[in-house]
Amino acid sequence: MEVAIAILTGVFFLVSIYLILSRHIIRVLLGVAMLGNGVNLTIFTAGRITREIPPIIGDDATVPLEGIANPLPQALVLTAIVIAFSFFAFLLVLVFRTYQELGTDDTAEMRDAEPEGEASPPLGY
Amino acid sequence: MQLTFYALFAPFIAALFAPMLVRIFSHNAAWILALVPALLFFHYTGFLPEISDGGRVTGGVEWIPSFNVNFSWFIDGLSLTFALLITGIGTLIILYAGGYMKGHQQQGRFLSFMLMFMGAMQGLVLSDSFLMFFVFWELTSITSFLLIGFNHDKERSRRAAMQALVVTGLGGLSLLAGLIMIWNITGVSEISLLLGTGDALRESPFYLAAFLLVLGGAFTKSAQFPLHFWLPNAMEAPTPVSAYLHSATMVKAGVFLLMRMNPVMGDTALWETVLPLFGGATLLVGTWLAVRQTDLKLMLAYTTVASLGLLVMLTGFGTEKAIEGAVLYLIAHSLFKGCLFMVAGNVDHEAGTRDVTKLGGLMAAMPITFGAALLAALSMGGLPPFVGFLAKEEIYYGIASADSWSIFVTGVAIIGNALMLVIGFAVALKPFLGPKVETPKSAHEAPLLMFAGPVVLAALGLVGGLLSGVFHKLFSSPMASAVAGTPLEIKITVIPHLGLALTLSVITVALGVVMYWGMAWLREKMASLLKAIGWGPDVGFDQFIRGLVKGSTALTRRLQTGSMEFYVTTVFVVLGISLFVALYKADEWPQLPAIPSLFIYEWAVILICVIGLFSVIFAKNRLTAIVSLGIQGFGVALLFMLMGAPDLAFTQFMVETLSVVILALVMTRLRLLPQDHRSAYQTFQDGFIALGAATAMTLILLGVVQTEFDPTLSEFFNAYSYTIAQGKNIVNVILVDFRGVDTFGEIAVVMVSGLAILALIRILPKKTNPDVPRSENTEEIF
Amino acid sequence: MASAKKSDVNLENAMVMADPALADWLVAAPLILGFIFGAICLMQRKNVLLQTRIALFGLLLMLIADIGLFINVWQNGTVVMTMGRWLPPFGITFAADMLGATFALVAGIVGLAGGIYALSDVDSTSRRYGFYPFLLLMLAGVTTAFLTGDIFNLYVWFEVLLISSFGLIVLGSERRQLDGAIKYAFLNLVATTLFLIGVAYLYGVFGTLNMADIARKAPALQEAEGPHFAIAIMFLFAFAMKAAAFPLNAWLPASYHTPRIAVSAVFAGLLTKVGVYALLRIFLTMFPADRDELGAVIAIIAALTMLVGALGALAQTDIRRVLGYLVISGIGLMLAGLALGSETGISGSIFYAAHSMIVMTALYLLAGIIGRLMGTFDLHKAGGLYQASPWLGALCLVLAFSVSGLPPFSGLWPKVLLVKGSIDVGAWWLAAAIIVSGFLTTIAMVRVFSFSFWRTRAEGLVEIGPISREGRIKLYAALGLTALTVIAGVYPEPFIQVSDRVAFELTHPQTYIDAVFGGNQEGGGQ
């Protein structure tokens, strides 16, 4: 089970890194979104995987059954999902505003902070 | 003893008050400020009896005990003589600056810098601890930077200041490394203790490295060829600076260092070859370049270079007499060079030019200045009965001998001394004698403040020669003993003794007179020779700075291209490589996993994810891209569901839905197309990089899941989730109780991102030129 | 109803029973204060004047809490507190050792200076849209990152400080701000994501997230099969990128010059240093064995970072961008001590980090003042400031020499420690890199001084006016920081004592482990 999911995370990383390497900012953003999913699966896998039994204590028990899923990675992933979503939302708006102001979605043309062909530093004293 | 502690700070405190005093008393503030070095001079004379009897004084307070560094001083013949020269000449220079800079708007600042420099120099010679020595050493570089750049409106001044700082600052850093190295070799970090550990140092395998590093410090500071060029350029500074820095202080610091180290680092073949070689070269280069000059200050500057060369040569020659000669010459040089610089300043100040070809016949107008100049020139020429004569005789006693090395060194010394005599007289005689030449200003005698200094220094050069017994007892013998590391007694007097030394002296003088006579011819020849060479280290400095700036610009533009694609590519290339190297180096490859046995529906969900992922890459239109993104997200949610994480599945489902919706809104609004236009090569390259990094991460994860899992934490949560924390859903209990702080942070992230989005959307940029910082918009605050 | 069952449970097996000392709450104080004051500011968003006062008061309180915490740790050793009173390693532990307390203290100073400077640098629009809440939360995030003892929790604070810094960097929405923000945001997000992946691996192998727990399990587990070294490399990579070490430094020069100066200044003081902190924590407290393996690699990274930073500074025309590269160069020096791993070296790194936080912030503040006076940050057009304000010139020189490591300012001593540490182990090339980078920095900064102060003002540019009454507030902020660098330069003893103590603790990780588990090694998870 872990092996399959581990390899699946590899596919997630492959695709998201490929997208992040793009010059088109919207593709980078898509890549970042999928990278988040890959990471969540990684956390989940690292905590080892069991099938189906959620970590919930039965109505009249004080401790859960044997063989339930590991609850800690689930909690970590929940935190990570929410954080990743917040970042995704922010980055989306940032991309949107940048597109509005700079008029491009191509990072190669985003040269306001480090302009192309700027003057060399002064050589005198 | 503790008075010395305050003495070390006194000039800095005086420097603080200098601007204020000048504002109140104008140039007469110099009288008050000069009291500080005068009192210091008086303080140091108090050590004379003890030191001249062969004593040493150390003292100090704890400074950085954690690092075994004390604020400690060490007074022996060497440092005492230096301290007296620094404070004594310092007193005269402060007075001189009072007159020279009279009416200058920034006179207060100038005097302040001078006093700071004095404090640095004083600290340098008195320091016992290595690091304290280094601190004061660099302080002289810093303060001289301020002094040389004082006329900061001129680019030449700025260049000279920077040049001095770069050259001497670099030397200082080299010295620091050298000192730390010596510290490591000998285990001591104080000069007074170091003096007993010479053999350990000389026999260490790191002697060569330490030697070269110390030399780097000494040669830059004392302007040894080919690092001499900063010194003449430093003549851009106002004359009081030249008179002080380039006679007795700054440039002597390097010689001081060599003399200090002589007992512990000297007496090796390396020391006795390298020092005379560079010193001799500097002596010759300095004198010949001096001949070339017509500017009084530059002539003096180059002879200073030459004198420093002579001192280095003598310090490294290795005989006791040579050291005695070096000591005598150092004192003599401080006196006559300080005087001659001030004379040049007076001439410049009164006549309006320093060009020796445009000066003549000033004797009548400036008799006192002329008198001082004449006395100083006689001392510089090495004529009796001046200290300069004592020095030259002793030098010839020290170096003249029958072996070829001595003959060579002696020859160098004779030529150098003869040329220095020429320059001395050219400076002292040419402007004053002969027919009166029309000068830009009509000359008068300089005021008291300005002739006091030259007269006193010139007179001292005479008195020292006449009272040579007292002079040796108090100053030169103790100093020579300190340099040699064994007690020495100098006996030379102004009464000439027939012998080799006197013969050589006579040859020197005769040669000098001949060359003085043919000086115009020599100057012309030198000028054409230099023109033929065309390049010098001074030009080299410009090339170095330009090359450095251009080179780093080229490098930086290559590394910081401005393209995000490049930055991101670098990140993932480095990531992939470093992870693979790590796996390889530590041999942490995972074992080959068995083919996972999954249920069909599990395979189906995984397949859905993969399809979603790849269709994002290949999506041809917005809708496909967005839907594909949604598919992989829902696939992940399904996986969570299958693996016993309903909470996660639900959250993931919500988040993905939300993401898809807002992404759709933005992409439609912007009419952004999802496909990109990578070339085939680019596609392959990016794909390869992505594959590398992703594979590495997967391999690590496979390795991770193959280790034995330690479930302690989760067992704890399972056990106490209900029994203590009263929650049935363990995941929720972890979120709100066991790891509640994480959730706290998570909520903060959500809040802040909302606020940041608000700021992004609501703030519209002002239409301003981005290069001009906007005005302070504070009206609503105050 | 449940109480009957509850009574069966022995609480001592699960929870810390002793009440925490009141002073121990100081560990959480920066976090609580930052959040409370951030929230109040947010509520008073429209009332700019009131909001500003509250924020400054909050920053001051945070600094006081940091000072209190520092004194507490100095006197009583590592202060540990587990949130929710669960026994470590089950709950989230906050553990302030000397390293964390020192960094937190300096961060508090930087934050307050930035907040004061912002009084006359950040316009009311930006304040209305959250300048001070961002600042407070970023500071809370940074400080708590220094104090937390749980690696996943560290990740959470990294994200808090990162999103707050996003808020700060975009305030104003100018073209190049957005451009800089894009690069800053995406690259930093990649770095924190890689950090999170590292945390996942770590959890998979160790089954725990508590740093002290990991540290005590590391020696045994590193003998076992599994990808330990690769995980260490993952952390090295992620934090080196956060710290802007070469060759992962590109995001910093691409963005640090774009926001308001007050923002750049606190960024320079705080953000990269969190990366450095994390590297020290990971490789000294948690995985000292991996550090020994990686010493040479880190040394090479350190040397290259120093040199690339210093050369980059020489290549700039914009004063702010000169400073951006100097931040990078400083990171190299901090890594040098980690590479050496000796007490002398680490002590040098710690001192240098504190020095760099203070001095780089001060330099940005100064750059803001002189840029405002000259109307440009362009070295081609700079000039004439010496006439207008010689005291500002003095300030500039002090900071220039301080950042170059020349005496008598605070940069010298850590460099001496590092050079000595390098020569001690025969790493002469590292010593040479330290010295050469200092030399190059001197040239770069003296050029800035010479161009903007000494050179006369070019024809046709507006006269430089005096510093306005409001502008003086900026000056006070810069002056305060400069005073610190002078004091630390002239009398470094207390500072070296602190950094020595930090270095001692870091080279003896058992002190940290013992502090967290209270000597009770059976506390759990063995």
From TrEMBL, chain A:
Annotated compartments: Cell membrane
List all membrane-crossing ranges.
Answer: 6-21, 28-49, 75-96
Quote the Pfam families the UniProt record gives: Oxidored_q2
Gene Ontology, cellular component aspect = plasma membrane
Q: rRNA-binding: is it a keyword of this entry? A: no
Asked whether the UniProt record includes Protein biosynthesis among its keywords, one would answer no
Give the way it sits in the membrane. Multi-pass membrane protein
Keywords recorded for this protein, A-Z: Cell membrane, Membrane, Transmembrane, Transmembrane helix
* Recorded family membership: Belongs to the CPA3 antiporters (TC 2.A.63) subunit C family.
Q: What is this protein called?
A: Monovalent cation/H+ antiporter subunit C
Automatic annotation (TrEMBL), chain B:
Q: According to the UniProt entry, where is the signal peptide?
A: none
Keywords noted in UniProt = Antiport, Cell membrane, Ion transport, Membrane, Transmembrane, Transmembrane helix, Transport
| Domain called MrpA C-terminal/MbhD: residue spans | 608-671
Q: Identify its membrane topology class.
A: Multi-pass membrane protein
Say where the protein is mainly found.
Answer: membrane
Please name the GO terms that the record assigns under molecular function: antiporter activity
Domain MrpA C-terminal/MbhE, first and last residues per copy = 684-763
What is this protein called in UniProt? Monovalent cation/H+ antiporter subunit A
TrEMBL record, chain C:
**InterPro entries hit by this protein:** CPA3_Na-H_Antiporter_D, NADH_UbQ_OxRdtase, ND/Mrp_TM
Q: How does it sit in the membrane?
A: Multi-pass membrane protein
Named from the GO MF annotations, one term is: NADH dehydrogenase (ubiquinone) activity
4Fe-4S: is it a keyword of this entry? no
- GO BP annotations, alphabetical order: ATP synthesis coupled electron transport
Protein keywords: Cell membrane, Membrane, Transmembrane, Transmembrane helix
**Chief subcellular location:** membrane
Location of the NADH:quinone oxidoreductase/Mrp antiporter transmembrane domain: 150-441
Regarding protein family, the annotation reads: Belongs to the CPA3 antiporters (TC 2.A.63) subunit D family.
Q: Name one GO cellular component term.
A: plasma membrane
Q: What is this protein called?
A: Cation:proton antiporter
Q: Does the keyword ATP-binding apply?
A: no
Q: Which organism is it from?
A: Ahrensia marina
Q: Name one Pfam family in it.
A: Proton_antipo_M
User: Where in the cell does this protein reside?
Assistant: Cell membrane; Membrane
- Regions crossing the membrane: 25-42, 54-74, 94-119, 131-148, 154-172, 184-206, 226-249, 261-284, 296-315, 322-340, 352-373, 385-406, 426-454
Sorted alphabetically, which NCBIfam families does this protein's record hold? PRK12663.1
